[in-house]
UniProtKB/TrEMBL annotation:
It is found in: Cell membrane. It comes from Phyllobacterium leguminum. Its main location: membrane. This is Putative membrane protein YeaQ/YmgE (Transglycosylase-associated protein family). Belongs to the UPF0410 family. It is a multi-pass membrane protein. The chain crosses the membrane at residues 6-24, 29-47, 59-79.
Amino acid sequence: MDVNWVVAIIVGGLAGWLAGILIGLRFGIFMNIVIGIIGAVIANAIFDSANIHVAAGWPGYLVQGFVGSCILLFIAKIVRR
């Protein structure tokens, strides 16, 4: 397994977990990883289109994953109502 994938999984899981705590929704470790990775992709697209640059490396991935995860979890919280 490539090291980048391992880092993406770990950072994505951490970002999803932190966002779950902030938003108040927790789906378990697997869904936290998925939400964190998808959130990072979404946030990356948003940041690129707005010409916003965050830190390079895993801190940047963590910030992007956290922001994107918060967006996804906020939407999920609205849909659950």
